[in-house]
Amino acid sequence: MKKILALILASVLALSVAMTAASAAGTTFSELYSSELQTIDYVDSTLTSLTTFAMNCEMGLVYFDNFGLLRPGVARNWSISDDGTVYTFYLRDDVWWVDCTGEKVAPVTAGDFVTAAKHILNPDDPKSVANTLYNNLVGAKDYFDKVTDDFSAVGIKALDDTTLQYTLLGPSAYFLRMLGNNVWYPVPTDFLAEHEETYGTSCEDLLYNGAYYCSSYEYEYERVMEKNPYYINADLISIETVIYRYNKEATANGAELFLRGDTDKVSLTNDIAKEWMDDPSRSDKYCSAPQNNMSYWLMFNFDPRYEAEYEPENWKTAVNNVNFRKAFFYGFNSYTYNAVLNQWNYQANTQTTYSRADLVSVGALDYLQLSGLDAYSDQDLLFNEELALQYRDAAKADLEGKATFPVKIKVTYNTSGTTSKRYQVLEQQLEKLLGDDFIDIILVPYSGSSFNSDVRNAGDWAMLELGWGPDYADPMSQFDPVLLTSIGKNWGRLYLAEEYYDESVGYGDVEKKALEANAITNDFDLRYTTFAEAEKILLDEALVIPCYRGGGGFQASRIVPFTQCTGQMGDGGARNAIVFAQMSDHPISEEEYQAYREQYLVDRAAARTAYLEESAAYQIPVSE
Fold it and tell me: Among 62, 251, 252, 504, which is 20 to 30 Å from 605 by CA?
């Protein structure tokens, strides 16, 4: 382990030594946020805001370093059965739970991972991420569905305090990497029992085993995290205090607050980036922001739940017509829409598929080149005015006497950020092309911190921009938002699309094909080509409209680029957590950013080469 940590430290130091930015004297990092967490129970969901909190404050069996390489965390090593279904983890005995003052409470044990699984699978208080467990572990679905109340039948066992064993439904090429996700983190057994009613509601009602502990949490005001002295990699943590400050207008106010020194990292809107480019006093204070793991698309709601004045039944009739959807699919100009986010390199962020590139591959072919998906991925833009009008006319003919025109389309949007501007562009562009006698897009503002629960999950919308980043390197994770068997049960309920609905199973063709793909565990080339077939149905039938890849654009930041831990997709993974990050004493310029990036790519290649040798030591023969 010391050799591994030395490699990480060397790579981080190489970046800071090679560049001109001096290390900051201060050890406090601050950042703004505009949408509040609804819980800090870190295994509750995979929302970006909660996974960021989890990555900062908690640690699972494994984690990913700043190169996206998998490293042992609570586990020191592991063994895998010959048939690939039984994983046995041998845990460190020096990982501690600490409280909100940084005091030791108890060691982390194998039983805490079992407790976490039982907490997530509790059928009387189910978590939205339960499907991740029951789609992988033997017996988990029966327990979740109350077929049995015997949790010992679930494929997770604490053989003793430092030995944990998982039994899978079938072999999985990505199970180890999946364990880096917060869904698989441990939960302190005794503490949960003592705080059952309040667990995850305050910093006092949680314990921590990661790089930081949460010392203060005031709702819609501030979250403060302090360095955990008992963290196993504490010597690699240079930032002592992390402060997240709530600011409802963070997008609008962040730049000025950055210049005043009140925050250390902000995204820059188009207008502000242009101002800084043209201002000699600020032109060296911004830099590029890398793309991240997120994909965004426009989703249709097949189960609208809103006021009668917006005619939800009429919308439901229209959206279940494929020609109606294709009028939107080809009538939507993602260039004009995405330019609201980033007017300089929006084309690079524009996405023409549901999934992002570089997720998995078959030989030299990216997943997006398989099973005919290249018909979409090879395009720069899906917008086609002629096709859109043809489908509009076909939809009118199909829906004559069935739907009333113009079809009202309720678009409920969060007033924070740039969402309102994007939707205004959407409304103007689509109504102008397709005609306001065909559609009537109605923008309805929502102000508050509960948008996801009050609007998105509640079905209070007809069409909405949604985003998702896969939790592990496999297409199954990207499909979560569209499947009944996953969070798709709350995200527009695509599986109810009438043209493809099979009443006998409760879902349609996309889900059938995706589940068929997920059942293929012994041939990963076939697995990925079958998933690509499912995605092609999704696009061929215009069930979603691709928009853009997350990230990109410009930022102002005092974080030394690429020093933070990342998600398992490496450079395409999230760098939201602050673990391992180093601070600069000045804002990073674009010139510095590009130099850091060049050095990072060199260091990452060397780290990957070394990793082939070092990672062999993580897995031990079954006999041991």
Answer: 62
What are 121's two structure tokens? 């699978």
Q: What is the C-alpha separation between 447 and 203, in angstroms, rounded?
A: 26
- Count of C-beta atoms within a 10 Å radius of residue 78: 21
Report d(CA 246, CA 263) in Å as an integer.
11
pLDDT tens figures, 515-558 = 999 888 878 899 999 999 999 999 999 999 999 998 888 999 99
**Residue 138: its pLDDT value, please?**
97
Please report where in the chains the tokens 């800084």 appear, as a residue.
276
Q: Name the nearest CA neighbour of 127 among 114, 144, 110.
A: 144
What does the pLDDT average to over 72-84?
A: 95
Start-end of CATH 3.10.105.10 domains in the chain? 297-550
Joined tokens for residue 132: 């991740």
- pLDDT, tens digit, 9 for 90 and up, residues 470-514: 878 889 989 999 999 888 888 999 999 998 999 999 999 999 999
Q: Are the C-beta atoms of 113 and 156 separated by less than 8 Å?
A: yes
Helix (H, G, I), strand (E, B) or coil at 306: coil
d(CA 479, CA 536) in angstroms, rounded, equals 12
Query: Regarding beta strands 287-288 and 554-557, do their DSSP bridges make them parallel or antiparallel, or are they unpaired?
Result: antiparallel
Reduced to 3 states, what is the DSSP secondary structure of residue 88?
strand
For the domain spanning 297-550, the CATH number is 3.10.105.10
Query: Which segments of the chain belong to CATH 3.40.190.10?
Result: 2-247+558-617
Phi, psi of 111 (to 5 degrees): -60, -25
Nearest-angstrom CA–CA distance, 13 and 28: 19
> What is the C-alpha separation between 566 and 557, in angstroms, rounded?
17
Q: Dihedrals φ, ψ of 181, to 5°? A: -80, 145
CA distance 88 to 164: 6
**What are the phi and psi torsion angles at 110 (to 5°)?**
-60, -35
Which has the closest alpha carbon to 444: 429, 424, 470, 428? 424
**Whose structure tokens read 């998600």?**
567
DSSP letter at 480 equals G
Would you call 48 helix, strand, or coil by DSSP? helix
* pLDDT reported for residue 568: 67
Retrieve residue 109's tokens: 């044990």
Q: What is the C-alpha to C-alpha distance for residues 234 and 69, in angstroms, rounded to an integer?
A: 19
Residue-wise DSSP of 385-439:
HHHHHHHHHHHHHHHTTTS-SSEEEEEEEESSTTHHHHHHHHHHHHHHHH-TTTE
So what CATH class is 2-247+558-617?
alpha beta
Q: What is the pTM of this model?
A: 0.77
